[in-house]
Amino acid sequence: MNRFKSYLKEQNVEFSAKRYFIDAMGAMAQGLFASLLIGTILKTLGEQLHWEVLVTVGQFAFDMCGPAIAVAIGYALHASPLVLFSLVAVGFAGNKLGGAGGPLAVYVIAIIACECGKLVSKRTKVDILVTPAVTTLAGCLLALLIAPFIGQAASKLGELIRWATELQPFFMGILVSVLVGVALTLPISSAAICAALGLTGLAGGAAVAGCCAQMVGFAVMSFRENRWGGLVSQGIGTSMLQMPNIVKNPRIWIPPILASAITGPLATCLFRLENNGPTVASGMGTCGLVGQIGVYTGWVNDVAAGAKASVTAMDWLGLALICFILPALLSLGFCELERRLGWIKPDDLKLH
Fold first, then answer.
1. What is the reported pLDDT for 171?
2. What's residue 278's pLDDT?
3. What residues contact residue 350 under an 8 Å CB cut-off, 6+ apart?
4. Residues pairing with 275 in the sheet
């Protein structure tokens, strides 16, 4: 047993929740951003500006979603070069066979294939043959066996959440907004979760609301401590920067969570805010304004498909209120109340 543990350590194979659910999922989000998301943005810009070259380039990036996720996960798991490069085929197979749940299938399969490849990496004199063969075979065979089922399960769960949100927009608006918003600030990937579950429609709109409440909320309520640099780094960067402060004083998390509990049902019930753009945008909030671009992309697609007559002033008003104005005002108000109660003290929100 000790020899086996020693061997795993030598091969840098570590069975841990942090490595698989934090490091790998965070990398998955980066892979999604560098392929599916940026591809969708470029494609949308090309369609709006009538630049065919942007549409073509965007489609190329979009089509590489599976390989990008797999390679990103391999990088996060410290794969050797031969394992890393072999994951390209694994990612392609998992995404293609996983259907609508392709990103989740790639996530699961790439982790297993990567660890299999690492177990044999640099252990033989013909490493250049053995390592790619083991990684590719393990990943692609797994894709053939389980990717369709993972994809179907993810799609069913996503459909259930979307159906429940349509049926109970108030309560599900609160639930989706709060949970996805919390995931955004935690060291896991809300974008990867939304992509894996295919969260679009009203559920996607609620997710956007929750993420914006966290990012804009923390950016505004910590302005006195962090000034403009903090406003930008949290407002269009990530609210995850506040995690060390949350660990020290969990009460600082109350204002943006309450804000998301309010903006979520407003998004679903009053403004009927939907994200029918890329699913990953549902979990991005105001990070690079990706959430808003995703909502706009959905509007454009719906208009083109005839599902929506036009983009109205009410649409823009809802987007501004849900994504920027209300999160700022609500979080700031709740924060000031906590400051007066002594729950939040000076420098509790200061970024280090």
1. 94
2. 83
3. 222, 225, 226, 245
4. 201
- Taking the C-alpha atoms of residue 249 and residue 192, their distance in angstroms, rounded to an integer, is 27
Residues 6+ apart with CB under 8 A from 30: 72
* Dist. CA 218–CA 239, nearest whole Å: 6
Residue 275, classed as helix, strand or coil, is strand
Q: Picking from 196-200, 227-231, 346-350, which range would have the lowest pLDDT averaged per residue? A: 196-200
Backbone angles phi, psi at 186, to 5 degrees: -65, 160
Domain boundary among 124, 155, 186: 155
**Same domain? 227 vs 296:** yes
| Residue whose pair of structure tokens reads 């990496």 in the numeric block | 121
Q: For residue 316, what pLDDT band results from cuts at 50, 70 and 90?
A: very high
**pLDDT bracket for residue 320 (50, 70, 90):** very high
CB-CB contact of 94 with 106 (8 Å)? yes
Cβ proximity of 69 and 28 under 8 Å: yes
115/207 same-domain check: no
Domain interval for residue 178: 168-341
Nearest CA to 55 among 66, 69, 67, 43? Answer: 43
Q: Is the pTM of this model over 0.70?
A: yes
CA 118 to the chain's CA centroid: 27
d(CA 58, CA 42): 5
Residue 81, C-beta contacts closer than 8 angstroms, at least 6 positions apart: none
Cα separations in angstroms, 154 against 127, 234, 270, 338: 36, 30, 28, 39
The whole-number average pLDDT for the span 130-140 is 97
Same-domain status, 299 and 330 = yes
pLDDT at 26: 77
Q: Is 346 exposed, middle or buried (0-12, 13-18, 19+ CB in 10 A)?
A: exposed
CA 174 to chain centre: 19
- Residue closest to 291 by CA, chosen among 219, 227, 211, 202: 211
